[in-house]
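Hey,

Quick one before I head out. I ran the complex with F0G overnight. Inputs first:
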Amino acid sequence: MIRLSSLSQGRPPAASETAHQQCIRPACGAAYELKNVHQRCAKCGALLDVLYDWERLPVPDGLALFDERRASSRDPLDYSGVWRFRELLPFAEPDKVLTIGEGQTQLRRTDGVAAYIGLDPARLFLQYEGLNPSGSFKDNGMTGAFTHANMVGARYAACASTGNTSASLALFAGVSGLLKAVVFVGSGKIAYGKLSQALDYGATTLQIAGDFDDAMRQVQEVCLQTNLYLMNSLNPFRLEGQKAIMYRVLEGLNWEPPDWIVVPGGNLGNSSAFGKAFSELHCLGLISRIPRVAIINSAGADTLDRLVNHAGLRWNGGNVDDAAIRAFYAQMDAEKRKARTIASAIEINRPVNLDKALRTLEATDGVVRAVPDEAILDAKAMVGAHGFGCEPASAASVAGARLLREQGVIGRGERVVCILTGHLLKDPHATVGYHSYDEAKLREEFGEFGVAQARHANKPIPVADDIEAILRVIKDL
Ligand code: F0G
């Protein structure tokens, strides 16, 4: 544990002196200055972290400081649900921070969904990240990446996306005017709500004839060959911002860590950021216990589940079995296996943050599960009926918590937080189809995802424009 007794007197040192980027593989450990822009470690190709010299930084004695800031939110840095925790992501000078008021989200106790999962009352909390300005958790990370882009003077930025990253990047670019945004999306692969955002916010939108994995491969290459700044979660400054989701969860629980955090897994940025957040808080002596993190794949995009639960892949102190990963992908290519799930946000077979997610699993005694799309849509309807609603990928967390309860991994009395990553209105097609299609139409539209039944459908009732007919329906309520 790092000793924090000797906090610096007077002006804190500049961020450039106390923060740097570093390769996450301990055997390499190459370090880079903040002002550098690297997709990966230039020496060995592994992922990069943002690390801090905590002993030289003014880390607060306790977490109550962050509660105080919440009350005085006229300062944009205090208003932001990310930057009011700035001592915990101290890589930027305040005048470089680019915020659009992200992170005003809620943690809500939701007993109706607790019952569905099989938890006792008051044991389940839903973290509604759909309440962010662009309607998903991505804004937490985008403010981090935009701040770094501002520090390095980027004029153009790009991302590949299943729809939410592109919406967030487009929004930040439009509001801030800092840079021009180019977004790469799989053609026909993103939900309409999200596509409408990228277009309306004015981003240059490239519809690649392929899926997210193809778009992700292309955007990395484009950013390497041009001066476009990469805004995907490969960017370690994105993940610094996403740590704040966990700070707000802890704050919502009066700084008492829950037993479980359950999060959907796609490109594995969130799960990576959450593990780093908890490891740092624990190391700094600010929390005494680390929650277990459960990462939930869709069964149609289950690379992490297969690698961890079937191939036995582990972080292993940084000695990841890269040959096993290469063999896995080679077989996937040989079988022409593409990700396919109605939870289009997590339709990803080559998660770029795989390494960091493995590190989270090790640091938090975490688990991985895959859930079928039918269970995801049922869980989504339960969230909608009892809470603020969410998009399909988000409900993977609730479906996953239910599975882990059934398996006895999560206990009925344990305190569980499910992260709801995106807003209900992102994907109206999935919602309206689930609630309104008859069985034949459901099979026709969603059958390829294995959805045969909509157990919690709330069907609209067709009725004639006739008062008697309407009254007959009302009387039957
Ligand atoms: N939930 C939603 C609503 C998402 O949009 C994403 C990822 C995830 C979960 C998975 O999060 O990547 O951190 O594991 N969406 C990315 C995008 C890929 O392009 O919008 P992750």
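The radius of gyration is 22 Å.

Talk tomorrow,
K.
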